[in-house]
Amino acid sequence: MDWSSWEGFAASPLGWVAIRVGALVVGTFVADFILSWIYRRVFHRLAERTASSADDHLFLMFHRAMRVTLLVVAIAIGFPLLNAPSSVVNLANQLCRSLAIVVWTATLIQMLSMVLREAGMASRFSFLEPRTVPLFDTIQKVMLSGVAIYLFFLTWHIDVTAWAASAGVIGIAVGFAAKDTLANLFSGVFILVDSPYRIGDMILLDTGERGRVTEVGIRSTRIITRDDVEIIIPNSQIGAAKVTNESGGPNAKRRVDVRVGVSYNSDIEQVRRILTEVADSLSIICRDPAPRIRFREMADSALVFSVLFWILDPEQRGQAVDAVNTRIFERFREEGVQIPFPQRVLHIESSPPPPVPETVEQGGGAPC
Questions:
Q1: Which CATH number fits the domain 254-335, given the four candidates 3.30.70.100, 3.40.50.300, 3.40.718.10, 3.90.580.10?
Q2: pTM attached to this predicted model
Q3: CATH topology of domain 159-249
């Protein structure tokens, strides 16, 4: 094509549209190149200087969202350049805005979730811990999703007031239908805020369940029992139950009381010495605080002693009781200390035989 033909094509309406669209495409590629260059030269290098990989993912997600936004803007600008009808241009703008809302909402949700996880693991804030991260994560997801839905309605010129009224009626119906689920939800929020127990604590419920907490969720709490069985307890039940946190208090140590009875003929000082030596010889028992021996009571059949000692973890209770009882039994047998069993004495009193009634002779009658 010679120069005159090119000037003729450029002067025509179709040629002018092609030139503007071509310039838009070239400008889009140039802008994407500049954006990628800034990401590689600035943000990527800054992220490599840190030990954490979270900032690398954050910058990468932001870069992807910016590239999608650049493409959406180019499409929104390109339709008017094609001299398309106004209805098509408006529809294209609405679709582009909707796509941008979806992309940025998903990106912000992922970025905030990652920031919350990293902040919870760092424990730099008193209110933000691994146990409260799910609560704040759910709140930010609900808020961002609500804002995205509102912007989506505005983009498509939907009456928000009518939908809000309908949502209120639907919310009441859903509230009655899912009252148990809502009870678990609110109980989960209260548990996360009040923190009666944390992940890793050994808890005992008034219903008898005992285990280590592995997850505190919005709907339920999961514990692992000593039998390696996972129990999922709805938060509404835990909120209304009496919970004993065996790992709570100033430290995680747990005191154990093992009671043993000896014969009334036993030497009390000998029994004290044996119990003290047993407690001091077992490695599972803590040395600080030191074990203690107490003479509890003079029962019906035995003298009752208590061996009070501490263990590092409540989960070791069964193992510690087994070791102490085994060692006490062996030492008592070695040194001749008797472990009595209940005895009962029965006293039987003899009574005279009942009188024998007189017999009536045959043929005679009783006097009148």
A1: 3.30.70.100
A2: 0.56
A3: SH3 type barrels. (2.30.30)
